[in-house]
Description:
Largest sheet of chain C: 8 strands, mixed
Helix content of chain A: over 70%
Helix content of chain C: 40-55%
Distance between the termini of chain C: 59 Å
Shape of chain A: globular
Oligomer: heterotrimer
Number of helices of chain A: 14
Order of helices and strands of chain A: HHHHEEHHHHHHHHHH
Strand content of chain A: under 5%
Order of helices and strands of chain C: HEHEHEHEEHHEHHEHEHEEHEHH
Number of strands of chain A: 2
Shape of chain C: globular
Radius of gyration of chain C: 23 Å
Amino acid sequence: MATTTTTVPSASPVAGSRSFLSRLRDGDEIARLITFLFAATVVLITLLLVFELWKGSALPRHKFGFAFFRTTTWDPIFDKFGALPFIFGTLVTAVVSLLIAVPLGIGAAIFLAELAPARVSDTLEFFIDLLAAVPSVIYGLLGVFIVIPLMRDYVQPAIQQTLGFLPLFSGPIYGLGFLTAGIVLAIMVIPYIISVSREVLLSVPRDQREAALSLGSTRWESTWKVVVPFARTGIMGSIFLALARALGETMAVTMVIGNTPTISASLFSPGYSIAAVIANEFTEATGDLYLQSLIELGMVLFLLTFVLNGLARLLIVATSQRGGGTGHA
Amino acid sequence: MSSRLRWRKFVSGFMLTMTGVCAFVSVAVLFFILGYLIYHGGTSISWSFFTRLPVPVGEVGGGMANAIVGSAKLLLLATLIGVPIGFFGAIYLAEFSGSTTAFVVRYAADLLNGVPSIVIGIFAYSLVVLPFKHFSTLAGGVALGVMMIPITLRSTEEFLLAVPRPLREGAMALGASKWKTIATVIVPAAYRGILTAILLAFARVAGETAPLLFTAFGNEYWSRGWTQPTASLPEMIYRYALSPYEDWHRQAWAAGLVLLALILVVNIVARGILARGIAVPRS
Amino acid sequence: MKKFAGLLLVVLVLGAVTGVVLAQNALLINGAGASFPNPIYSKWISEYTKKSAGVQINYQSVGSGAGIKQVTDGTVDFGASDGPMNDDQLKAYQDKHGFPILHFPTVLGAAVPTYNIPGVTATLNFTPEALAGIFLGKITMWNDPAIASANKGVNLPAKGITVVHRSDGSGTTYIWTDYLSKVSEEWKSKVGSGTSVNWPVGLGGKNSEGVTAQIKNAPNSIGYVELIYASSNNVPYGTVKNSSGDFIKADLASVSAAAAGAAKNMPDDFRVSITNAPGKTAYPISSFTWLLVPSKFSSSDANKRDAIKGFLNWALTDGQGYTEALAYAKLPKPVVDKELKAINNIQ
């Protein structure tokens, strides 16, 4: 019998780059290409969207220019449009909602990831995910039937009695307005913060905690000073998701904010947000300047997200000294 | 015990209790909402809700059969569009890309995420409705699919990156090529988080009304194929809840409950089918 | 991986199956527009399609402005609006399609002032000056003489008025502001009339439901809703002084009286405003509502054209019998006759 000697190809990777063909054979290049195409699609869609928004808002951009951002009038009959009250309302409600949702959400996520027994944590998480699934119209309805009367009859008067000297809590009480919208938004975005933060916290390796504890830290210290920072980028990611949701939420906001383009120092005042005015008026906007002004508002919201995202990224880069285990911006 | 230590122990106990309070508040609100929805929706659900079509305004006894099917079709299409793009795009970001490309793609995704759903509806309107000159399930599916992309992408990426280095290196050391490592080690290790991301995205778009207003438009009858306007649960809820008719209000609550149940079922089925052991032990 | 692929396959197959066109071949006609006449249109469609098998008319009440826009864009087969298209809009349609669009009045309706004043159960009387002043923000207290003088014997409180209006574009807003523009020069020059205006004061509620909810929740408030809505929901509403000086409560008779005068001078294109109409018993905030139908259909859409013509014909004759039960006033006979002739203009 003739024996053939076959050289067994070495299975271990050779140090240094491999030839293009061998990488191709392994499918890596194809995988890279395919996944790149998908990633590129995302960018393409975004660019296309920006392009459509830009093109669709040509008239008011030429007519008003930058004055669009300073004007407070919104008059469809006399064709005068300004974005300021809507920008104000969008920002205020988003900030209020995050001020409520972030501490509550991260606190709850820590509890679920670190303290609760696995089964409890999983069950509660399951229900919290359900909260994210409630249609926004239902939140709006609950806002109208439950939150507004509560605010009007109990919460707002109580706040005004104690803190009413602050301009923040002054003025007539309707039950609706910036504060109520912020609260409803907070309820809507909490599930995002909780579920994503919890998952990220759960994926922090056990040895990190144990190292901290073995050095004598309390349970809280090991959680807050070691585990959470390790999961920092994931948690910040969840906050971005929440922020994006709060900025763009339409239905629930329009049912509780009062739909009045006003700028006021008081959180009790009725107001308007960009998304709400677009929802209310877009399908009815006849007349090119009117329609395109609404589209320009949509573009403004887009820009807002752009700027806020940029700021937040700078924040991460500036503060990430200690290892987030992933260490990317 | 030194006083400093006592203080630290107190802080620890206090803060940990506070996290419990946070969780309790969040869950309490949730249970309240669910209870309210179940009570109002449950008392309104009937067989006719599932089987009958809407009846003329002001009359009682109609149902939302066409809206249920319409929502299912829209969500199916949205998932087919949104999940692959988000999932594979995330793999690219986490495994293959350089930092500039990654930055650009992430930024684009965050921007897309920040677009209000109604603007996405406008986008789908100009892209799909106007050229074809009619409203359609397709347009609605495209709008919802686009909305699913950023949530899926960013969250999946986070979880892929969270897979510990030793796992990756172990696979490489055994000679696996990059894509094999991804497919057999990294993705399975991160599957729980990825599933969370996909389900979050799904839940998010399932309840969206605004983008459907001028894409799927609404239909009083059965919608056939993909190119006719279609009714959907969120759109019906919106319309019925804001109407003056008691019967419609009850149907709106019922629809809200059914929608929630639909998402729940998808959740359970998905977790069940894709369940494998947990690769990364929880600490 | 295999499990994933298997799942994907199942999903794709399901998708293909649901995409299969079923055997029936009913003709689907899409319409969009005013929510004001939605109840009657919905009833008409259901009755008419019982008679003509194979025709399905899908009407979505997305608002008058949306109706105009959609029919101009060509994404629906017909539109509906509580306010007639203005000249610019007509021109836009003509420029886009090359032929004009036709208006067909279908029923009559009205907008009424609703209010919530704790302690006041009487029906309040409102003069045009009072209404304009309130909505302009000039009259701010309920016990203002402008309101009190028309309501002797009613104990109006010395409380601030909370104004509520529609936040979404609406035909009801159109009717309301059209009326205010006619009775108040200041309103006309400062605010104007339309489906969406720059309200000097007030909170915005989404849909009549939203307005009613706001009014119910805010003591000492006032707003406006459709007559049909107010009467079917037992929402208290006040009377309005008409051009003859009488305080009229909106109902079928008074709304029909408002249209009777207009019937004599109906223009050929049927675009007319009947707010503040003459007539002793006329309710001043009344309006027609119109169906907007293209005057030409392509040869491939001949079925649609015939179906729409048939529906219009039926609505203007047998259909009028259903209106009063739903609290809409029917059209005056001369108007109907004129319209039936005009249907022939649809080619």
